[in-house]
Amino acid sequence: MKSAKRSDSTNSGRQDSSSETNDEEQNELCPGFKDVDAFVKYGLGAVLSATKASAGLPQTGDDYDFYRSFPGFQEFCESQGDKLLLCMSQIMQHHGCRSHMRDRNKLTGLEERFDLVVDSNDVILERAGILLDEADGVNRSQQPVMPAGFQPPKIVVSSWNRKGSGSGSRSETFRLLHAKNVARPQLKFREKVDNSNTPFIPKIFIKPNATKPLPSYFTNKQIRKERPEDLDVPAALADFIHQQRTQEHVEDMFAHPYQYELDHLSIAENLLSKCEPQLYKPMDETKFTFIDTLEDLVALNEKLCKLSEFAVDLEHHSYRSFLGLTCLMQISTRDEDFIMDTLELRNEMYILNEAFTDPAIVKVFHGADSDIEWLQRDLGLYVVNLFDTHQASRALNLARHSLDHLLKHFCNVDSDKRYQLADWRIRPLPDEMVQYARTDTHYLLYIYDCVRAQLMDFNHGQTGLLQTVWNKSKDISLKKYAKPIFTEESYLELQRKQKKSFNTQQLTAFRLLFAWRDKLARQEDESTGFVLPTHMMSKISEELPKEPQGIIACCNPVPPLVRQQVNELHLLVQQAREMPLLKAEIAAQKKKGLTPIKKPDVALFGPHDTSRVSESDLPLLSPDEVPVKQGVLFTEDEHEMDIDVQKTSGLTAPAKITVFQEVETKIDQESVSVALMKARRINESFENPFRMYLPSSDVHVNKNAKFDPFSKIFEISKRWKLQSIEQQQKELEAKKKAKHEAKEQAKKVSEERNKAKQSYQESLQNVATVRQQAAESAKGGGKKRERVASEVGELTPKPSKKLMKSAEKTETPPQDSFKPFDYSQSDLKVFAGTKSKDNTQFDPNRQGHDNKKKKFPKGQNNSFAAGNRSMSYLAGKSERGFRHNWPKR
Ligand code: AMP
Ligand code: MN
Ligand code: ZN
Q1: Dihedral angle, C-alpha 272, 276, 280, 281, nearest 10 °
Q2: Which of 440, 543, 595, 889 has CA 20 to 30 A from 107's CA?
Q3: Ligand 1 geometric centre to CA of 238 (Å)
Q4: In sequence order, what DSSP letters do the residues of 196-207 get, joined into one string?
Q5: Residue 198 alpha carbon to ligand 2 centre in Å
């Protein structure tokens, strides 16, 4: 009814306004309205009068029934009703929503119809919101430069090409020059891209200019080339083989191949003295060579080896590849410019290591941080003796440190940075792009001269400042490429950046979508931003659309893989919706790189309430640890409460299933005799067989699990399988802290006692190792070393120096240390050529060697697996938030 009235008045209104604005018709926003304001003003009026009129209609009940008894009224109502439904149907269809408003047969009741309207409203409003956002955030005024013959670029607004994430940066949207139909260079790569969820291992196999020879791991083709995942053996066996092969090479595998040379690099005298800048040749008088054959590359290498310096830059593409692709390398000498097709010569570029690692040749880069990583990742190239003009610019405190600024400042050259985000995969390379790429290195040696001279002047002829720049440059060349590793917790970090507080359902959706996107991106070798940009992922999680259409509505433009798999995504959203609704406060709790030392959870219920405790978490109390204050539920004093918590921690799930629970060990160690410790140790060895697979603290049992017949099996198996690398790392970190504390305490204890304990510990070491070995081989992870170290650490309340050292060694930050392979997370067959056929039934939880399928009926598999996982993880987090907050009321 409302709409009927409204459409009537719309007509009359339009007539009025159009007669007034006849002469301006050309500039009208839409027929009859000269601008948005006019339209909004009019629309508001129309809605108001319609609302008023509808209020004047006979009310339901007696009033309405009375009027209904007049055939005229009835007829009018019906015809108006049909009109209305038709109108609504059309609007809904226009927006791609399900609409059977008019077809009364297809609908059972008013309720369902009402739901349809509500959902459609959501979709329409959503779309309006997106359009408003777009109008607000995207600057379309500047037309990007594109080489003739190429399609006008499409602007892709996605999180990855948005500069920064801080407030106020919304309008800084980068332009992505997008050429359609660029053949995927990956298809031509001889060595397939390795997107598996395993750490990066250097590509080097020959090491020119070595003072320390390349470790055998890299020179031995047998170990390197035969990837266990390529062997036709069961996954567990492949893991085992891999573990055996890599065990002895772990340190080498993840070290910087030129670490030694760089550590011992000293800057030549002449590089620390002032010299006259040597002016660049004009570009059009400079010889240019495009290199895409091995022959030319070899010739170039020979040329470079004779020089004392050359300039280098790279162009990169990251949108249509998971890890990114180095597309071009530009090199400029004092006389010549070269551009190498690094897509074509990907496997041959390593020969340049001869010049690149020659300490007598300076390699000048501008802002080499990414370049150093790309060189390693794609080309197996390293740089020894780097000079980074970006670092020089910083040291000189120049106004800005970008290359454009240096070009303008020193060479008075205007560079057109609009090409920076061009699609560098395009071949043949258009002239305009060649010009741009050349500019990036052509002037760089001159700039290098200038900044060196200025750095000397700046420092009154002293070399200090220049030396700093050399050192900073060296630090950059020591950078190691690290592959993005998916862990069960990676989504949290990204979610935190969204600055949105999510409830459990939304957070679950975010987690599931994150896993889906990561897996698909690795599989299809696309960037996660191409699969599903973060802001869309966040939007879907926030909205939790009831219909697949709602998911589509959250995306503008709709990413192709989202459109293709919208039903799978919809299933994930549905799973998230099934979560119990709780406010999640994870974001506030977690800080990057820090594992807050968690207090054992406070039981919300009485000591006899085991509703949230599963068998695996039942108290495992040794005789000396009987809880003292079992009945205490509340306590006013916070400090007192902490003690209570410690003492009654046997009541809560995480208390005993931990290897690193520092608080207790500290207290106990002082008072426990060797015999008692031994007894406890034996006692503990009878605990939950899954003990060593469980996260050290923070074992959570979800509320819903007990309603699910499968959940216990599922939970236990899932939990240890999915224990993330990150978490393990964090645990090690926490343990390290604990050990430091233990060390402090150790000073107080007498030597004798210390000795006794050490000998005791030695006698126990074997026990732990055997158990560990069995466990580890069952698990197939590469964690053995660390685990052994941790157990020893835990047993030793006052660790000896030697132990401390060995522990520290294994506990360097993630990028520098060995990360255990988590094959359970990866689909290793994908890039070996066996592509999963079952694309439509994508399941982020399905492992490469999935056998769950057999257990559960088809269709249920998907939702069950992920749903459960989500519950077990998520509820844990949020409940912790709750429990944590609760005593402080
Ligand atoms: P450049 O060193 O300026 O030539 O940049 C090298 C590569 O880094 C380019 O090919 C781009 O792929 C990438 N890149 C440079 N600047 C940006 C930026 N602002 N946002 C995203 N990618 C960039
Ligand atoms: Mn660069
Ligand atoms: Zn560049």
Answers
A1: -140
A2: 543
A3: 38
A4: SSS---------
A5: 27
